[in-house]
Write a structure and sequence with these properties.
With 405 residues, the protein is of the alpha+beta class. It contains eleven helices and 17 strands. The protein has a five-stranded antiparallel beta sheet with strand order 2-1-9-8-7, sandwiched between helices. A hairpin with a 2-residue loop joins strand 8 and strand 9 (238-247).
Amino acid sequence: MKKFFICIFTLFIFSMSVSAIDITLTSKEAIIYNLNDDNIIYEKNSNEQTKIASLTKIMTSLVAIENINNIDDTVTVDYKDLQGLKGYAVAGFKAGDTVTYKDLLYALMLPSAADAANILARNIAGNTEEFVNMMNDKANKLGLKNTKFSNPIGMDNDNYSTAYDLSIILKEAIKSDLFKELYNTDSYTTTNNIKLTKTTSKIASKYNLDISNLTGSKTGFTDEAGYCLASTATYNNVNYLVVTLNSEELPNHIKDTLNLYNYFDTNYSYKEILKDKQLLKTIKVKDSKTKEYKIYSKKSITKYLSNDIDISKIEYKYSGVEKLNRKIKKGDYLGKVKIVYGSNMLDTYKVYLDKDIKYYNYWLLLIPVGIIILIIWIKIKLKKKKRRLKNPLKKKKTTKKYKKR
């Protein structure tokens, strides 16, 4: 539930960015993140369940990396690992080969080798079924509601996910330096001299596509899943992540991905929407020589926004304390400033009292009042004494008393 509301809030904040997109994709599902801000900046059917082909191997790799103690340890290929792989990409391992976990991980990620997936699963978990359970447990820990794995390869049978869920898996995976190394390598030679080349690089080279900005990628294809691509890239110091699914023709999954990257690189950038020490509001001060308090920002704020936005039209709407009094102390929360462009709220800035205000000390007024009262009292006493001196008191009459006889 919390995750749902966060997504809704994110979409609200960036509705201006998302709704302004004018781009056509052949992929049926897609999503792009700005990784600098960890925000979705565009999505198309991103929660639609679909087959994901070899993008499954991102989770296979993630689970494997988390459960391998030493990637230089060796394992022996079993003939069972090589069964049922007709029609799927393989690295070319043979039964009886001795290979390292490192060899298998590179084979898994570069040519998307199904034999490597099976060998890893059996050696890490004992059998494929238990390894798949580990994959699904990891999906549950990541909070993925629309993902299910039935094999570590990406075979279509009861194996599915969404563009959104895959983006979460990939964001988790790239936290690993080892995964990033595998993910961003174009070629590798195994210890038993098998030369491996990344599928993305092969396709890009064949169709003369520039993928030099990509910092990592993983392709996938089956008849049901279509052409898929999960990738990360850096353009002008902005880090992005894109997942495209279900494109019908080669190499449209790569073209769609590059179109998304290029669109945002061309049409969006970071803009300063709040300057440091910018005057935001002036409020009144009660009972003080300081008649007003000026609220200044204590930092600058930049946002990733469309280049069409006119920064001069941004408004700063303050809501909070309108008059300071002696009860409000330094550090107390005063209110917030909404940073608004048109009907879109870009951000909010919280305001606190950042200095002590000197107020009138009314109790000190009691001293002159007391002195005045004392003076008046003394004057009254002196007047009375003066009257007594002018009019001496008369002797009181006495009556003679006789004793009874």
